């Protein structure tokens, strides 16, 4: 069990539909903010820090040019993921779901074993999902939260109905929190629980599982 499942998984870093890193300026109502969720600012500097962590890891990889090219829209995707993480936390809390340190450790041990070791897991996630090594634990925590949320809702993640039940819960949490995104990065879609036209980051296979048609 790791961050992305064939049926449904989360974002700690959504990847493939975003725009290049943008200038460090906020909206008129929230200077310096990339987005505001439930009144809390996600600053441009926080966003850039996460993006740069990925870029640094990519530059140190065996195929830096290819990885950077494949994640050329990383900035918006990362912001989408950061917003989604907060929405997932709210949906989990609303459902009475909590994630312990032990839960994360067990899930990470399983993920590393499936990948062939901790280093291999970090390599896979960097290559396939633009997740920096330091972001892996947070991504796994989100997967555990998603698993527990699905269980609490009685949502079968292998069925369209189960997926929709999860989307509905996340959409409700998104609406409650209120998401205000700096126009430079697009607009938040609470129904789809994603930033603009970004591809849903939690509908991708895990690095150790083959994609299904």
Low-confidence stretches: 1-28, 203-213
Number of helices in the DSSP assignment: 7
The topology string of helices and strands comes to EEHHHHHHHEEE
Described by the principal axes of the CA atoms, the overall outline is globular
User: What is the CA-atom radius of gyration, in angstroms?
Assistant: 16 Å
Oligomeric description of these chains? single chain
CATH structural fold name? Triger factor/SurA peptide-binding fold
Strand content: 5-15%
Count the beta strands.
5
Specify the CATH architecture: Orthogonal Bundle
Return the average pLDDT rounded to an integer.
81
Gap between N and C termini: 20 Å
Spatial arrangement of strands, main beta sheet: 2-1-3
Blueprint of the fold:
Layout: E1 33-37, E2 40-43, H1 44-59, H2 64-70, H3 74-94, H4 101-115, H5 118-129, H6 136-153, H7 160-177, E3 179-181, E4 188-189, E5 194-195
Antiparallel strand pairs: 1-2, 1-3, 4-5
What does this structure look like?
There is one protein chain. By secondary structure, the chain is mostly helical. It has a single domain, classed as Triger factor/SurA peptide-binding fold, CATH 1.10.4030. Helix content is 50%, strand content 8%. It contains seven helices and five strands, in the order ββαααααααβββ. The strands form two sheets. A three-stranded antiparallel β-sheet has the order 2-1-3. A hairpin with a 4-residue loop joins strand 4 and strand 5. Helix 1 packs across helix 3, helix 3 packs across helix 7 and helix 4 packs across helix 6. The protein is globular.
